[in-house]
Amino acid sequence: MKAPHLPRAALVVALLAVLAPAVHLTSAGAAAVRDDCAGVPWMDRTKSPERRARALLAASTLDQKLRWLDEHSANDPARTTFTTAAPRELPPGEFVPVTFTMPPQVPCTPVIQYTDAPSAIAGAGAGVTVFPANVSLSSSWDRALAHEKGAAIAHEAWRKQRNVLLGPGIASGRDPRSGRTSEYLGEDPVLSGLMAGAYSEGVGANPAEPVQAQLKHFVANEQEIDRNNSSSNVDARTLREIYTLPYEIAIDRGDVGSVMCSFNQVDHDWACGSDQLLGRILKREIGFDGWVVTDFGARHYLTQDPPSLRAGLDQELNAWRYWTPMAIKEQIAQGRLSEADVDEAAYRIVRAHLASGLFDVPRLSAPDPDVSTPRSQALARELAERGSVLLKNDGVLPLTRSARKIAVIGPTAANTPATGDIDASSVCLHTAPGIPCTAKAPLDAITARAQAAGATVTYADGGDLTAAAATAAAADVAIVFGHYREGEFADRPDISLDAGGDALVSAVAAANPDTVVVLQTGGPVLMPWLDAVKGVLEVWYAGEEMGPAIAALLWGDTAPSGKLTHTFPRSEADLPTAGDPRRYPGTFSDGSVVRPPGNTEPRQVAYDEGLQVGYRWYAAQGIEPLFPFGHGLTYTTFAYDRLDVTPARGGLRVSFRLTNTGGRAGTETAQAYVELPAAADEPSKRLLGWQKVTLRPGESRTVRIDLSPADLADLHLLQYWNAATGRWTTARGAYHVSVGTSFDTTLRDRFVLR
Hints:
This protein has 754 residues and is α/β, with parallel strands linked by helices.
């Protein structure tokens, strides 16, 4: 702790003199801290993270505090030479690279390494587990499973020397053509917020292997087209109820160390420099006390008013680009910033690192070559099984002994590419770089499972439709695989199957009436052939254990239990953004959709569908989707009755009887929705809560979804954002609650708030 009779500079000199023997440089140039760092004030574990952070900053020079404001500088405390980056997306000459030196960081500061990890550790090479994409995780509706996935990825990150996880991601599924749909957790803000919160809790669950979770990309970052030069123009109510609410819930219910702001503008204000978004909403309204970091190269200016540092931004990702020490010092000299602004940003970063344990448990000296274990591989399979959604089943599944001859058709069923690079491993995860994946092929797993059942398998890669149809016609059951690929940097042109998939499915279905389609997509997909097939199983991007998981689901060794977290439209014309280029992909000042040559203005994207996002759109517009939000079948059926909704002690209890009316055990995700009074002017009912229930054949159980006063308040379950007052508001009047197996609920009750 700073001595009151010593000036700061004298204290720094004294501390460095005393502590110099405690630090030595490794061959990699990182600071390795010995046990005698226990004598340093900010290493005193009996003190709170807040007091420890204040002690560290009190012992820091301005330059040492400035080091926290850039990733490369903050995370490599012994490094002293830096070069600013020249952003390629900006006009040449606007930034000139400059090499400069900075003093080493104060002693006993940890080495930190960030890692991108959509569902596997990126950039670490082989030897990591590739779990299913997060769209699959959300489809499990299982917060405990989300916690377990977060913990498993954090463990692998730690063993690969990474200790800040750039994830999970949150977006609201405004348009399913978005290239990163598979990375996110669905279209409902309550569901995605709770799942992200549970995931982040898992990331930070092991104090012996401290890893910090980060939410991204804040906010209204709903397309890849011009993501770094567009403005998401959204009204204040929609911003709170749809786009910031899942972040608020995840922060409240999770363990979130940091938030990454997005590339785009929101209402003509760059997200990474917006006082409205970062200062007012994230830090003051939501109460987030962690740190905010830019996306890589996101625009954030010191020269705007207020400067981005004062607006709420804390750190620049990667190398210094906009926030060089020279630029910040110049702004301080001009009186536009103060050292207190630097202190605030540095404090938030240091406090979060201390709270998560990064100061107390040194990073490993070397990465483990292989961190994938049988336990993590078993979890990858469980995630794939429980996230898969049975969309249609006209009695063809589960496969029985009558299926003696099975045809497997399609390039993504096998690990031998039919054409180009299309094989099972190409739909293991989305197309993010730096994550190698060799999937266990569905063809191999189906063949092994068929042999165990006394059946045989024939395969056609689907490149020749006539051959595929002949293979299907000779079988008792045909299993045809359809896919599309997506990833960062580009949106999809449509949500139809890739590589002639619709024609392949149609040809197979025409040849064999018992056709099952296995879909490997990152989000909703069109199905013009739906009436011609008997079964449809959506497995998403199912990770490295896709093959065994798919085989187990087809034979019923594991019953499907997933539920959709995106509405599947019948046509792209039914999307909330369809037919209006202002909504998607957005337009320029001359009204064009394609960026004119030499034009550097932000693309303007009108979010004027407002609250009508996802299932709210279909309900408000009276459009029947192909499959509703929450839909998912299993190998039994369920009946709901005896609904009772009771406000009690400031909370709410939703009670009903659930009965397994089929012939085998099964798991149901029972869902409750609430329709607010007319005064709230909501477009539709919305998700209130859910409960996963497993029942034996014929078994009935009274199910209770209990919502505490904290649930109602923190999740804003019965509230709407009142733009006139700038507050969350509870309307007076009748609230209608319905329960059922999907958004298409059957039972309905009500209660009144006066």
